[in-house]
Design brief:
alpha+beta; Cytidine Deaminase, domain 2; four-stranded mixed sheet; 6 helices; 4 strands
């Protein structure tokens, strides 16, 4: 962890405080380009946007995938106030970003929450209908 990493994490934490002050969950992120410039900043806006996917990491991953070349994206670093959730981690993997630096780990965040405030698991059933489901997928990945 460098002093620049710490400075940029502090900015992500400040963005989290801004999100909370605006009535949203307290999460913030920024994306640093390969040249060391901040390309974009985001705050969680899931409450005010009424959009459960409006996490700052996901918004930045979508922006990067849309606006940056794969080579530029690979040279970026995301600084975020908390370890990305599963949804955001999936988007980050697909976006091609270079690395993520986070402040709070998921376990630390869980310790800060009152008991019973997490999200319940959604029951899932499967796999099923393999022979039918494989038809549209077969050959897609090369």
């Amino acid at each position: 962890m460098t002093t620049d990493d710490e400075r940029l994490l502090r900015r992500a934490i400040a963005l989290a405080a801004e999100a909370r002050a605006g009535g949203n969950p307290p999460f913030g992120s920024l994306l640093l380009g390969p040249d060391g410039r901040v390309l974009a900043e985001e705050r969680n806006s899931s409450v005010t946007d009424r959009d459960i996917t409006a996490h700052p990491e996901l918004k930045l991953a979508r922006w990067a995938a849309r606006e940056l070349s794969p080579e530029t994206a690979a040279g970026t670093t995301m600084y975020t106030s908390c370890e990305p959730c599963g949804m955001c981690a999936g988007a980050l993997a697909r976006s091609g970003l270079g690395r993520v630096v986070f402040a709070l780990a998921t376990e630390q965040l869980t310790e800060l929450r009152p008991p019973g405030t997490g999200f319940p698991a959604v029951p899932a059933v499967g796999p099923a209908l393999f022979d039918e489901a494989r038809v549209p997928v077969a050959g897609y990945y090369g």
